Amino acid sequence: MVRLDWQKISMRLLAVLLAFVMWLYVSNEQNPVREMVLNVELEYNEPSQNYFITGGMTESVKVKVQGNRDDMNNLTAADLRAVVNIPEGKTGELVLPVEVTAPYKLKVVQVTPEEVTISLDRMVEKQVAVVVSLQGTAAQGYTALAPVCRPETVTIRGPSRVVNDINQVTAAVDIQNAAQEIVQTAAVNSLSAQVVLNPSSVQVTVPVIAALASKTVTVTPQLIGSVMEGYRVVKSTSDPVVVTIFGAPDAINHITALQTEPVDVQGAGQNLSKEVGLSIPAGVTAAQPSRVNVLVEVDMVEETPPASSEESDNT
Hints:
Elements: H1 6-30, E1 33-44, E2 51-55, E3 60-68, H2 69-72, E4 81-84, E5 92-97, E6 99-101, E7 107-112, E8 115-135, E9 142-144, E10 148-150, E11 153-159, H3 160-163, E12 168-174, E13 182-189, E14 196-198, E15 201-206, E16 208-210, E17 213-220, E18 223-224, E19 231-239, E20 242-247, H4 249-252, E21 257-259, E22 263-264, E23 272-277, E24 284-288, E25 291-300, H5 309-314
Parallel strand pairs: 1-4, 8-12, 17-21, 18-22
Antiparallel strand pairs: 1-3, 2-8, 3-7, 4-6, 5-8, 8-11, 9-16, 10-15, 11-14, 12-13, 13-15, 17-20, 19-25, 20-24, 23-25
């Protein structure tokens, strides 16, 4: 039976341990562990199409790296990568981790900040009405009537959170001391620098007339022609139903209604809608609005069923 010499084994183990401690001591003295803080540029992937970052993304992060002196001697910020991965199809406020990679043998001890909070939004567009704002007053003895804008709507494009809050845009026109009709190209204003307008300007016409009496009268559609055989006109209406006329008091007092320009229904077999002007009688200077939309309802003529033979006999 072999007997172990524990004394010799213990001495050998102690020698190995002392050698390791000595090596560790010498290594730390000759090639000590160091720490370094570097400012690393933050990288991120581009958001999906029509999505974009509206705020929160920082340009760089501070990274504390630990390693032996020999491995750290030539280390620069370019040797490290700090990346944020932006998910697809998400909007709102997102908290995303910063992922840092360092060269082999080096340890990332700390990243400041460890997370970034960014805001993502989606690009949308919609049509909104243009409201004309009249600045100033017409010349003495003159009145500015309701402005007419062409086009009446524009398309706005921008971040959804901004676009969704915009229901109209404005166009300002100066009528100070105006004594005749004004036709002007006016810039459209959305009150937000984050949206794009198309078109960015509109043409505004402001009728200016001598101050006269005014009166509200009804509109009567004037139809000409005959609808398709077997059909009939159920009714005709205008939108708006009433308009305001202007003129000398003795000229407009007796007027209770205005006819539209003729609306041709010849051969119509279905409802029709048409924008037409008004027939302005003598003595009326202007009408507001000057054009209306006429809707004509057309329906089939209901045939009367023939009388039964029994009814005929009774007769």
